[in-house]
Amino acid sequence: MVRQSCLPKSSALVNVPGCKIGAMEDSCTYLLALEGGGTRSQAVVLDIAGHLLGEGSAADVNANFVPFEQAQAAAREAVIAALQAAGVSGRQVVHFALGLVGLRLGAETFGCLLPYAKYHYFTEREVTFARAGVFRPHGVALVAATGASAFGVRSDDGRQAFGGGWGSLLGDEGSAYAIGLQALRGAARAFEGRLEIATEMVAVVCEHFGLHAADFRQQLVQLAYHKPLSRAEVASLAPRVAQLAQQGDPLAMRILDKAAADLSALALFVARQLFTAEEAFAMIVAGGLVNAGELILGNLRRSLAQAFPQARLMIGAEAPALALGRLALFNLSQHT
Question: Is the peptide bond between 17 and the residue preceding it cis, with omega within 30 degrees of 0?
Fold first, then answer.
């Protein structure tokens, strides 16, 4: 476990104009939100009115794929960065919202940084809905990021359904990791001349990972197995594959088509557990793969219109940590 240490003296006691250090009135208190998963962690500081004051980021924190101590350190790093960016003391944070995948942290990690904070825990599912501004969900949230999962909930009777989220070894079809992995495998076959289609994937992989085409086999094998490549590093190749697909590369287009079909099938599987074809509900899609546009969303848009014509496709575009913070403020407002 990471040893406790407070903020550096230079940033531990920031004097907010009109406030005294340690004062707990609303004008001097703040909410901090920390969100993280298999790609990175993000933290934001908001005032009680919901204004963004500062943000920070660090490495991924999904303890299913990185050591606990490493995830814990990254979470603290993101929090400290956000506090310093906001010019706010951790003593002034009275609400701390956490939405971490595969990890639950508390006062053992943040007690020294945030001595007066009340902890509020949220799931990745709730954050995904919140990224589209939906705080009382009735529909399906599809996560299309390093991993892939879908969650559905009915607001009338509380029934829920879940699919995917098995991780890179057992599932994650349609995820950025799956795209990156297929791109690496495709590049290996293309290098040997075993593909029946033309592709620039070898050049893209070389450029992305800093490899030399003349030593491609040796360098890629060393990168993949000796380093080895992390789940997040494999997933980081996905945007380059999407860019190549937009340029018409046959292999990249094939990989994106497969990912889009897998995501669509996952989302509709969950939707069918809860909703009939005549019902109206929201289908929220969030995650880095949304940036691929219709290459990823087109299949889902068409399939959703055919299977659930009353459903509405929505994009969760707000940054995860900011969405989490606003969800926490919304929940607090409902209890006051």
Answer: no
